[in-house]
Amino acid sequence: MKRIQGENPNLKDLCLPFTQFCKLNKIETVMRIWIGPFTSFGYGYFDEMPAAYVLKYFDVETTLEFIAMRLWTWKEGTEYIWANLNEAIKHPAILKIEVVKVVRKNGKIHVTVKDEKGERTEVYDKLIVTTPLDLFAQIADADEEEKDLFFKIVHEKYISMACRPLKGQNPPSTPTSSTT
Ligand SMILES: Cc1cc2nc3c(=O)[nH]c(=O)nc-3n(C[C@H](O)[C@H](O)[C@H](O)COP(=O)(O)OP(=O)(O)OC[C@H]3O[C@@H](n4cnc5c(N)ncnc54)[C@H](O)[C@@H]3O)c2cc1C
Question: Is residue 134 left, alpha or beta, with left meaning phi > 0 and alpha meaning psi from -120 to 50?
Answer without folding.
Answer: alpha
